[in-house]
């Protein structure tokens, strides 16, 4: 009789424990789902509900091979954007519970809306599907994409006639470009290869495999030390200019309420990276050290002139003429000179 009583009591305890475990996991899931859209900022506390904490002896968060028991959004562990983590809970009853979650991290400071004024317009060849765009002196260097139409060209600002053209093989889809010294570096979309050209003649010098860290080549710029690439996510990849297949570091980009995925054409100027967002009429001003978006230009009005007829004719060209910005896009008929106010 005594043995039966003990067995029955143990069964009750097990049932209660299972119910509590389910309660903990359900409560944690509800909390994480509610916070996924709202997101966190660096320094925020992860305030788990009482249904979790009152049954927990300890709680930790793991990130791959890293783990922390601090329920604070610390940049040592978290980064801008989606952080795929696992909550590990040791209950007071001795059980170990685990649950995967996504923690979205945004910047604390709202990005500034940067005013500007269009001060000049220049002709641009509307046949050019712009993927890379920059200016040095009075010369525009442009990488145009699409298979069977990709090319690298240069021409004087104000002209639509290239002074030099380097056509690409038909299977190549050209992407972003950057000048470093007397060389031009160019990415390709899905060909998994990059090219190096002589800046003056546009003749190819060499090629290199794209880093394994990203599957597609999108935008490219140069900060005087490293090439900086993106691949259609919110990550900036800093590449060794002497070995562009090597990623030196990765910096995720984030705004106050938006994680700007699909950042595309890039331009480095006066300590900041300027980037457009694919299929959006914005250019972001990014702190390259932190990835924080500190400012945003809204080019909705001029972008709509081109996207109203074809949604692929998006803003996708950023260069600087002194302190003024030049902007253009895929198959745009104009280049706009913008004074930043």
Which secondary structure elements does this structure contain, and how are they paired or packed?
Layout: H1 2-38, E1 40-41, H2 50-53, E2 56-63, E3 66-68, E4 81-91, E5 96-106, E6 112-113, E7 116-123, E8 130-136, E9 139-144, E10 151-156, E11 164-167, E12 174-180, E13 183-188, E14 193-198, E15 204-209, E16 220-222, E17 226-229, E18 235-240, E19 243-252, E20 263-269, E21 272-277, E22 282-286, E23 293-298, H3 300-307, E24 315-321, E25 324-329, E26 334-340
Parallel strand pairs: 1-5, 6-23
Antiparallel strand pairs: 2-3, 2-4, 4-5, 7-26, 8-9, 9-10, 10-11, 12-13, 13-14, 14-15, 16-17, 17-18, 18-19, 20-21, 21-22, 22-23, 24-25, 25-26
Structure report:
The structure is a single chain. The chain has 341 residues and is mainly beta. It contains 3 helices and 26 strands. The strands form 6 sheets. The protein has a 5-stranded mixed sheet with strand order 1-5-4-2-3. Strands 6-23-22-21-20 form a 5-stranded mixed sheet, with no helix packed on it. A hairpin with a 2-residue loop joins strand 18 and strand 19. The longest helix has 37 residues, at 2-38. The chain is elongated and about 75 Å long.
Instruction: Please work out how many helical segments DSSP would assign.
Output: 3
Supply Rg.
Answer: 26 Å
In whole angstroms, the N-to-C terminal distance is 88 Å
The residue-averaged pLDDT reads 93
Number of strands: 26
Strand count, sense and barrel status of the largest sheet are: 5 strands, mixed
| Helical content band | 10-25%
Principal-axes geometry comes out as elongated
Structural class: mainly beta
List the helices and strands in order: HEHEEEEEEEEEEEEEEEEEEEEEEHEEE
In spatial order, strands of the major sheet run 1-5-4-2-3
Unreliable residue runs:
4-17
Query: Per DSSP, what share of the residues sits in E-state strands of 2 or more residues?
Result: over 45%
